[in-house]
UniProtKB/TrEMBL annotation:
Keywords attached to this entry: Hydrolase, Iron, Metal-binding, Nucleotide-binding
Organism: Aminipila terrae
UniProt protein name: bis(5'-nucleosyl)-tetraphosphatase (symmetrical)
Alphabetized GO MF terms: bis(5'-nucleosyl)-tetraphosphatase (symmetrical) activity; metal ion binding; nucleotide binding
Domain of life, source organism: Bacteria
Amino acid sequence: MKTDYINNYIEKNISEKRKRHIYAVKDTALKLASLYGADLEKVETAVLFHDMFKELSGQEMNQYIKHFNLDSKYLNNSNLAHSKIAAAVMAKDYEITDEDILNAVSYHTTGRPNMSKLEKIIYLADAIEPNREYPGVEELRKAAFVNLDDACILSLTRTIDYVQSQNSILDEDTIKARDYLKEMKRLKEIVDEQ
């Protein structure tokens, strides 16, 4: 897929700070994709779209949510809404039909049960890109280049703990994603022991 039009949109419509983030996520995601054998073109497309609507006003986001008939839980919640809007616009306006790319964008903030390799890479790259600074990010960066699933479990667990400590809205997909990965890890350990 040609990404020139996406890069054009980013250059014209996104703040410098957000551009730095998007391109840092891209570099990180491509490194993870090379390590874990993911499709580099899909990675690049997902990354370039992932935060395209992050800087919309609350009113603009709410209009998109209503326009695309997205769940009302996303109203007035830009942290969760921007990814769902981006995926909807990708499908409608850019005619991107690859479910893996759409899911990677849609769930890059929350995760979800049974994430694909691409989804895990976008989720983690967003969390560990070099401009991110928060307690535990260095440990998470190291973990991401050792084991994709373990790094996702670590990141999801920390997100759950942080959001709950802030008394903020926690998307149930985050809990389900963590629990799913933990269960898959437990089942794999049982199989490995036999």
